[in-house]
Predict the 3D structure of the following.
Amino acid sequence: MKSSAKKILQFFEASTGLASVNESSGLHALTIKNYSYIIVVGIGLLLFSSIFSIQTGLADSTTSTIGIAATVMMGGVYILMRSGVSLRLISNLVIGVLYAYFGSLIITFNYEPELISLLVFEFSIISVLLTGVKQGTTWIGVFLGSVAFGVFVRTGNFAQGNFDSNQLRDIAIIVTTTVLLTALYERSLKHYVDLLKKERHSMQHRSAQNNALISSIGDGMIALDTGGNVTFINDQAMSMLGIETIANLEHAVGNPISQVMPLFNDDGKPVDEAMQPAKIVINFGKKIDTSDTTLGGYNIKNKTGDLVPVSLVVSPMRSSGHVTGVVVIVRDTSWQHEMDRAKNEFVSLASHELRTPLTNINWNVESLLDNENPSLTSAEKASLNNIYKGSQIMTELVGALLDTSRFELGTLEMDLEQLDGVNIIQDLVDSHTHDISSKNQQIVQQHTQENVPLISDKKFFRMLFENLLTNAIKYTPEGGTITVTTEIVERHQRHKKMVFPSRCLFTTITDTGVGIPVEQQGNIFKKLFRADNVRSSSVQGTGLGLYLCHMIVEKLQGSIWFESKPGEGTTFFVYLPIYSNKEELTV
Amino acid sequence: MSTYKILIVEDEPGLRSAVAQKLSQNSNYEILEAANGQEGLDKALNHHPDLILLDHLMPVMDGTTALKKLREDSWGANVNVIMMTNMTEIDTMNESLKAGVDDYIMKVDIKLDELSELVSDKLEEKTAA
């Protein structure tokens, strides 16, 4: 636009106050600006024709008055529209004016053809205004048709030379109302656009909030559609996978997860198609957490191509009952692996460092005490025997402490296999034959069933019964009796005053030993606890055996308890559920 | 009666001398000693002992590495090796077994007499074979 033309327009706009040149005000300003000139000219023409017809006496006073009234009303509506009064109020005003005007026309002109077109016109306006723009679209067509018809009839009159100022006024009314209505329509459209903008803004805000939330999760997050293609990937997942540029991001979104995040086993081989967690979840619709399952280790490759151990939580996204995609949470577990390694290394080294000097003492004392060494006096031999005994106790203590540390640090992994429980217990009893006979003790074994296959961890199982058996032998005086019984108790069977929650191997180890003082019975499974009566006796112990037993039984999902009478003896009861597959014990 | 050469590879002098002293009570045994894996490997390849008692954790070269290298040698591939350790970790045991150890003992759990018996059993087995 030329600057002079722009200046004239600005002057016009400023003097009429009709349109804003402020472009930032958007659709509203533009719409009003486009229609303002026509509306102003239309209202002016209306005013002129009404005054002219009154001045010349060409029209009767009623229609002229109505013309003036319509002019004033339209001007009013326009000003209201500009001043931002609510759309509903303006619509009601327009309907009111139109009803008044057309009602008076019907009375004055006795149903002329133009009037019929004007009536249709009126109803279409009302329909548009009342039903809203969307449903009123059809009516807009009817309305425009009737306007065209009215104009056609009027111009026919002009052609025949039957011009009067009433007709000029009516045309002005039709044109102005049309434009005014269009402007209103645009404004209502703008109302919707404003709503949409507002909605979009709040959606953007929510989306920004969600993005911030998703980004601040320390874990990687990837969303997939049901075809297994990536629909979203967060910053963490991108940096874990070494996707850092926008170009790479475009390669990620829309592509299959198997390409974006290929998974590898611990040995670096690609994970089988059937073992892909995302695929399993898409097919079966059930959440998977790889850290809870026996699915095995999963690894991804980072930017430099190194394997990174991860745990994956894959959850289905549902919409009205259907799986519409999955969300994959990827957690880098390398620090956990590193911790496990460090813990293992610590215990392993501690074990070595503590045991080596003990072996040194043991072997050298053994060497000195050797039968073929005649130079020792009996007093020296007695001293060496004391050293040896002390060293043996120390060795036992170190072993128990290391086992306990391993248990507490969680470095003793469960290694599940099928065992013959009763057979292991029998073997353990046999291995103590020497200790039992050297104390003139009797051992009684009662096994209701031989060959009881169960899934368990051999080292835990042995550790548990070895500790209980050693305790029974240790704390039973010479000539006492130790009874070991095993039986299978079925699920929900009532036995020994209790109901068993599942099929189990039920073991009892009874001794005729010193018993546990009643007031100390509550502490017996506590770490490093030794009851007063054994602490004051010559029997050596670490206070770790029963603590370990308790931890083992918990790990094997069983129970351990006891009945004891000081001076008469103690019975330990061990309940270990019999599982037929490994999953039951690990889940 | 034939004479056997036994190589003791152990970095802890106290343990090494105790075992050496115990085994040398048998006049048929010629005892060789080494203080680390590398020295042990060199002595084994030079002297071709009948049996090697090999510690696990040692400076310069650990027992498993020495064993792996030994097994690469045509003579060393078949020599009897008893791994002695105080490491209780399953991984360590598995690693030694993979490297081709014949026996695995926990030092802290075995008495010198028992070790001596084990050695003579292994040598008898070898003679019988």
Q: What stands out?
A: Chain B touches chain A through 22 residues (CB under 8 Å). The first strand of chain B starts at residue 4 and ends at 9. The radius of gyration of chain B is 13 Å. The first helix of chain B runs from residue 13 to 23.
